[in-house]
Amino acid sequence: MKAIETAISVNPDGSAVIELQLPPNVSAGVHQAVVIVEEQAAATSPAHAASDLLPLSFEGWPKGCTFRREDLYGNDQR
Q1: What residues in the chain have per-residue pLDDT under 50?
Q2: This prediction's pTM
Q3: Gap between the Cα atoms of 24 and 30, Å rounded
Q4: N or C: which end of the chain has fewer CB within 10 A?
């Protein structure tokens, strides 16, 4: 059994985000875990809270975009 301390971010709806890095000597696989939450909120926030991440938006290639050799290199075939 290993004790690992970390910070969690609790949302207003009661859900929580837990980020933690396990030591390298913990084997891969399914493990039993116990989470104990202190009654008082922590005075400092974690350095990289999940709520600080910005959403990313990806779109496809522009319409009509081709990657033919002629389009990339011109008519001299280089």
Answers
A1: none
A2: 0.36
A3: 15
A4: N
